[in-house]
């Protein structure tokens, strides 16, 4: 009887051992799982934020490099085959600064008026010249070598006979025979701060509407080294400019309240020697 009682007791103990976890054990397991999940989630969020910040910093650096390279290229070209009397560089010390650059596209070669214009609204007769580089909607420049003056106009039609029409805008005067017709290119760069949260570097080509060239550019500054050795914000004459120092500042796209200045910023400064100004 005693042996049978012991067998019953052993069977009951084995049942208790196989019955599962206690409430305390389950609570401890849930608590540990919560700690692990919380740590993993915190690590994931931190890495995700770091990745997002790194992507914005990469974009910012790409924008500032692209903006600087674009400005340097155009400044080197400024003055190329620009006729006397037309400024190749126009500077505005506006903080952020602005700059207008002019150079010849080489799309027209030695094109001139073969007949004088009878009136300012008359077509430009360039009989016998190759006008294949000029199209409707282009901006062209007519220059009088006698007075060293000229003006830009919008081309409305180019005829095979060598006639150029400008029906939407009469010229300021009737140009004489021998006046040159060129396809000069004008690039104006400035910062649009209309949206204070997203300042952009803008480029305006010829007389067309400005376009965004680079996002989140906050500052644009130019310093002009003259032939005299002086460095100025605005040159008295573009013909005196020998080198232009470009400084471009950019910031990341979104503010970060955990960062002490909200925005991460970068600045790039480079010097560009002009090639086509003051060469005579």
Give an overview of the whole structure:
It is a single chain. The protein is α+β, with helices and mostly antiparallel strands and 280 residues long. It folds into 2 domains: 55-101 and 187-280, no CATH class; 106-182. It contains 2 helices and 15 strands. The protein has helices at 2-17, 23-77; strands at 89-92, 98-104, 124-125, 139-144, 149-154, 157-158, 163-165, 180-182, 184-192, 200-205, 211-215, 217-226, 231-232, 241-251, 265-273. The strands form 4 sheets. A 5-stranded antiparallel beta sheet has the order 1-2-9-10-11, with helices on one face. Strands 13-12-14-15 form a 4-stranded antiparallel beta sheet, with helices on one face. It is elongated. The mean pLDDT is 89.
